[in-house]
## 1
Amino acid sequence: MNSYFRPAVDAMAGYIPGEQPKPGTSIIKLNTNENPYPPSPAVTAALHNLDGEFLRRYPNPFANDFRQAISDVLGVPLNWVIAGNGSDEILTMIVRSCAETQRKVVYPTPTYVLYKTLAEIQAAEVVEIPYGENNRLPIEALIEANGAVTFVASPNSPSGHVVANDDLRQLAANLKGVLLIDEAYVDFANENALSLVSEFENVLISRTLSKGYSLAGLRLGFGIANPKLLEGLFKVKESYNIDAIACTIGAAAMRDQAYKNECAEKVKASRAKLAIDLKQLGFEVPDSQTNFLFVTPPNGNAEAIYLALKERGILVRYFKQPGIDRKLRITVGTDAQNQTLIEALIHLV
Ligand code: PMP
């Protein structure tokens, strides 16, 4: 029987998100890089003040209240901002508008696996170029590959490292296609690449409210680039991609930078402590500028540790991928959660 689907869809594996156990279970969830702290009180207040009448009508198709908050807080013009249903949707929009058969989607690996899925949906050619020693960005090979879209996550997942702005500049200046700099974890980093959007016409930065703002369940992210580049994204986005509730709550969250920064500082302090504790157990723990650590257990048996932790009600992330299958990605939790993890690991390494 003929398949109903396009050959590209038949051929692809599809994206498999991290495990999401039912809320309310007592599982310590350190597998999908959520923030361990609740969203800003301004978010809860905005939720309480919602009027049902507000939901009867379609929302603003451009999420203007949310975009205005971003514009005010980051000091970028409103027409340099686009809102997405999670930053995943910003990634989807750029691939949809730029990639197709005969065009390439290029990125250094290991990195966020969704880039591959999005490229495959468009039947684009996928070019994966491994990072060098010490996470050296393979700049020449990335330029050579000549992608319609080149993705660089900075800070990267799962490695946790930041790519230097000078490297990103060199890439942007030499690429004919779009450079998407995925800053999903920027709220936990010491630097960012925002200034590159005004330096280069082909640079698009994506950010999210899922991590720093504790709003993964809301699904809200945004892209920043010059209006000429955003034009294509506005054409391909879903008609009302940001619902009325997300638009209102997202604006409140953005405007409470002090709360976001306070939570990020707590996470960074816990990250430092967790790194020390893991090192004491013999783990290799590279520096991270994110809310997770990408670690190698002393006995190298990452999968067994992942399974044993799961049995004890602690979820971390294990990737059964060649090259990274001896490592675990552990989201930084509260100090109490991290302590429970360490106590469990004492018996496992
Ligand atoms: N980029 C990276 C590198 C990520 O790890 C994630 C989280 N899975 C995202 C983007 C997407 O996050 P969201 O869609 O929740 O904004």
## 2
Amino acid sequence: MISHTTSHSNPTPPSGKKDYPYPLYAPWWKVEEGKKKFTVPIEIIQGKVKTVFSTDTPEEVLIQYEDRVTAGNGEKDAILKGKGNVCCLISAVLFEYLQDRGIRTHYLSLPTWRAMSCKKLSIIPVEVICRNIAAGSIVKTTNITQGTLINPPIVEFFLKDDSRNDPLLTPDRVRLMGINSQPLIDITLDVNNHLQALFTLMGFDLVDFKLEYGYDNHGDLFLADELSPDNMRLWKKGTLEKFDKDLFRNDEGDIVKAYKHILKELRRFI
Ligand code: AIR
Ligand code: ASP
């Protein structure tokens, strides 16, 4: 949803959703007066858990991470204090880690603790999932049992459309949608190798994760969206304790505490 907010008033929440004040935080430029780097953004795209502000640099946006958490394509949601902050910081650490290893990402800098400056992209409307261990939807929709090792890893495509419950796509359907899947598969497997190496060192299994991609206005492909335990499954090696959004999906624990632990560990290893 796009609204023009020259008056700084909060935009209207997406229809059909609970009436949360959007954005959940005061817009970043009001809080960070001292550090203001851009003139007041005028356009807002409100996602489920992030708000995208345009800036006075046409090819840059600010992505503000909100304290909202959703699951089941918006079926379940809550506001958890500190969640936006920790997801933003983990994402920044991981985007920088991947950039240092030659992956092109939308991440540019971290002007505040809960908003990142990113390249403006036009997002490809598919969710790219990589799986190393069976969990979640692959277990629900096949006879593969939870915990089965998937080696070599697989890459799957889902339509990015909550109103249709993000259905699984076939390679032919991806092609018919006009999407060249090969570069997405190649980069995703590359990302998997780098993230797996890091999380293995930290003592976690990277079970699976979701990526999104987009093109800049020169037609170059970049890794986009977010890289946090909201988009990946992380199991502690040995105990199989979860440190990801499944804790929220299944009412099994405090995700903010779990995510903070991941951030702390990341800082020890990167
Ligand atoms: N994911 C998928 N849609 C949104 C998200 N965050 C992530 C899940 C999980 C992986 O993609 O968090 O890490 C696979 O999800 P699923 O539901 O297909 O098993
Ligand atoms: N369907 C996704 C999940 O369960 C995303 C969401 O609902 O926000 O994580």
## 3
Amino acid sequence: MRRILPSLLALAALAACKKQDQGSGMMSPNATGPIVIGEVGSMTGTEATFGLSSANGIQLAIDEFNAKGGVKGRQLQVKVLDDQGRPEEAATAATRLIASEHVVALLGEVASTRSMFMAPKAQQAKVPMVTPSSTNPAVTEKGDYIFRACFIDPFQGYVAATFAHDNLKLKKVAILKDVRNDYSVGLAKNFVDAFTKTGGQIIAQESYSNGDVDFKAQLTNIKAAAPQALYVPGYYTDVGLIARQAREVGITVPLLGGDGWDSEKLYEIGGDAIVGSYFSNHYSPDDPSPRIQEFVSKYKKAYGGQLPDSLAAQAYDATGMLVDAMKRAKDLTGPSIRDALAATKDYAGVTGNITLDQNRNPLKPAVVLKVAKGGKYDFVTKIYPEGMQPETGSGGDAAAGGTKTGSNTAPAPASGTTPTPTTAPATGATSSASEASNTGQKQGVPSAEHPKK
Ligand code: PHE
């Protein structure tokens, strides 16, 4: 009896709420007061910099929108929950934000595995979710309420493989992947597929599990295969340790990796062992593009001189893309925001223009960065997907960007036309300009490599 009563009350409350706001997600936002957006991230744990940087980027964008009057006359507010880097916690946090905080939308997670745990909760409640940085294709496949602001791993794997082949002239590469991480497993496969297509060979494949601290056995096997580079598509804490132990067992070749390396902690953990290694990423703060430089200086000003990593930039863009959709949506119910998000076209983000395809994924360029002494990341090259032109103009203000409703100002070439050269020279790089100037590789993803628009 005692147990039945509260649940009956809850049901009655739910029914009343549904009546008031037809067509909304499970629970509807209040019609007055601030609009609450939920955020789920790893604010603590071995990937804490992912959550912390993302939260900074989100807050910066929100502050800008609020300064310009908010959305539909209301201010925006972000409610952040820490998942401690644990997938189950990410799911619980999403549920809590939806059921107790009545958020209109969710931002997060960074890690693909955790986004995949959150996504069914958002989908079921019809609350749109935008992941800033989860790159595994399966994330947005969870349902039509799930969106992302970043490129996906078939492209990222292609970028690393093309760079390994064209720039570094590599033929034999070994792989060390994290089998408990969907991102790592997926990206390893995407790299293998793309590198093999260049005529390269994968001469050893080893695995570990996120959180392991001893990688010597795997690294000893890898050393015996004598690769020219070691591809490690993992997260920064593991990669830092792997780099150290790789040098200890006598592996001297560079490590290659993906966006999961991006943290100021990578060098703190890896030290000189990681210097000279390369990874693909979403953007470089050294890029001279006005929209990037404007963002970098605003971020530094807001956060005590800190340089925004790609998590911060992606989170800033994801927030801008979401708020842009909320402005265009006919109301703030889940289905209306979802429809507006799905129509995102030419949103001028810091990390590139965002136009979502029918799978709710954008096509965006990637950069390759080289870890330098002291932990700085030198810009080496920028690689665009097929048919995409470098972005121009400013747009470093989330509140100034926006999906064009009229005609497209920078139309993409019709499919079937020859892709234009799409490597941006490293004009703004500090120490790698010479290296970048002799890149000269062909760029652009063959359409077979990338899902159709
Ligand atoms: N792309 C990674 C994933 O999907 C997350 C990540 C993005 C990490 C950007 C660092 C920087 O798991």
## 4
Amino acid sequence: MLESLNPQPQDKILQLIAMYRDDPRTTKIDLGVGVYKDATGLTPVMRAVKAAEKKLWEVETTKTYTGLAGEPAFNAALVSMILGDGFADRAASVATPGGTGAIRQALELIRMANPAAKVWLSNPTWPNHPSIIKYLGMPMAEYRYFDIATSGIDFAGLMADLEGVAAGDAVLLHGCCHNPTGANLDAGQWDQVIALLQRKGAVPFVDLAYQGFGDGLEEDAAATRKIAAAFPEVLIAASCSKNFGIYRERTGVLVALTSPDRKAVVQGNLNFLNRQNYSFPPDHGARLVTMILEDATLTADWKAELEEVRQNMLTLRQTLADELRRATNSDRFDFVAHHRGMFSRLGLTETQVNRLREDHGIYMVGDSRINIAGLNARTVPILAAAIAGVIG
Ligand code: PMP
């Protein structure tokens, strides 16, 4: 049986990690994989997470199964963190293995409810979106998003393409901190997208993987909250991997907003999907998040550390934009300071990206996406000088 399997194409980012690992140069710089790193290059366990783990060890008396949807307290805490108050009667939800698990469950829910529904993706998007959709055999379409000339949003292209959305289609939107571009809709543009999708009868599907990494915890949820208030049905796949720094614990949630009288049926279908795919969702990370969000002191400390992380990335953005201005004697890269989240697409050619890697030991994804958090005060000028060299 297994001899009939074909080799899978290599994941480009994982390939990059291996190349970086095998590079003997001590001056090498890793701007590839999407994890937050502090100034020393470490991905720390957050203080509040450590404190919650210690407390959990003391108070946990059993590791028997949780509920199929996860612990209700976790789901409620996440619904409130994402949406604020006032949505509990419309929100069916299940805990999932990370944001990826939530995306996968959302797609399966869409397919179960309406096999003809197309899933619309921004071009570009996180490569795992089209990969999972293709694997599930679901119809898919793209809308323009990124303007290569300005490294901002191609808003006219986006609106023109979304005119093609049919009633019942699902439109995947990055709630904040777009991956891979770093370019995000402003409030007025969100309003126009919402009005267009309302007119089309679309179902918004929000991927919220970086709440707290852009403009702030509340600010990063603003678009999702507007969408939640504007549509009868919304799917939200949220991840705690980045904002709680618990990547390997696999902690996420899928929220399906519906009418209060449909909520029980939708909840039953979400539970069913968990049962088919893995029964009970992982608990450890979800429990830590709940403990943090239910304890005022831990919440305050977590928010303070998350804010340090966010500010660190903003400072790196500004210094990189300034250094690039100096090194290239142009404003071509000013957008780096306006982008938000962990990533920016720099708009370099594949040849230039390869030269940065080969000549300078600087590793970024082939589409010239950099992880801002991979930089520090010492490496920002090195990157700026190298970029000036390869584009000159
Ligand atoms: N969505 C986007 C846009 C992401 O970048 C990521 C993480 N790279 C995820 C979802 C999923 O994250 P995880 O499964 O690690 O929680």
